[in-house]
């Protein structure tokens, strides 16, 4: 009986251990985070070393998905008073990218979204001009006025694959991302178009983020989200296949 009890205890503990959020600090070069399920209980959080005092930002990432409905959230940065302080989503229904700057939405049309291929995205904004711009694969958007011209301040909660409707949570089913996300870099400045081109072209020597660096990332994953090897067979951009 005692043996059975300890066996049951072991099973319960292991089951719990597997579903508990796990925090790690690693180089995720050549790795992806896989979001294999359309559920609000799977997510990844990225932990910067410092709190924010940034008057400019560039967020670069690559994603791979087959979603044709909803508004999957790629990147969501919340502060206590501004749950959509900086977000980047793909609105599948309207076929446009959507950013929020300090809780104010702005849309970008006519940019590419390739199903079941890597899409490389960089989104920039700075508080001096107040202008946001999105680059996807080989196309740059126009520059649009977005949000109040104020710096990003405070301790952020950054999630991948989920959209925060409140500080540190409030995930919604319609904003769940499913697929792969990789190479997430956050810079405390607006990168030059040349630097963005180098990143998008997946050249090896692109600039690594000085706020969030995929090659030395402190992160927590939960639910069915997991770190996996990048599958090189489908990685190459059109340009590189020629
Ligand atoms: C955060 O701190 C760690 C440990 O000091 C360091 O290795 C890492 O590069 C830092 N990350 C960034 C983005 O500066």
UniProtKB/TrEMBL annotation:
<dbReference type="InterPro" id="IPR051005">
    <property type="entry name" value="Pentraxin_domain"/>
</dbReference>
<keyword id="KW-0732">Signal</keyword>
<dbReference type="InterPro" id="IPR013320">
    <property type="entry name" value="ConA-like_dom_sf"/>
</dbReference>
<dbReference type="InterPro" id="IPR001759">
    <property type="entry name" value="PTX_dom"/>
</dbReference>
<feature type="domain" description="Pentraxin (PTX)">
    <location>
        <begin position="29"/>
        <end position="233"/>
    </location>
</feature>
<feature type="signal peptide">
    <location>
        <begin position="1"/>
        <end position="19"/>
    </location>
</feature>
<dbReference type="GO" id="GO:0005576">
    <property type="term" value="C:extracellular region"/>
</dbReference>
<comment type="similarity">
    <text>Belongs to the pentraxin family.</text>
</comment>
<dbReference type="GO" id="GO:0046872">
    <property type="term" value="F:metal ion binding"/>
</dbReference>
<dbReference type="Pfam" id="PF00354">
    <property type="entry name" value="Pentaxin"/>
</dbReference>
<keyword id="KW-0479">Metal-binding</keyword>
<keyword id="KW-0106">Calcium</keyword>
<keyword id="KW-1015">Disulfide bond</keyword>
<protein>
    <recommendedName>
        <fullName>Pentraxin family member</fullName>
    </recommendedName>
</protein>
<keyword id="KW-0964">Secreted</keyword>
<comment type="subunit">
    <text>Homopentamer. Pentaxin (or pentraxin) have a discoid arrangement of 5 non-covalently bound subunits.</text>
</comment>
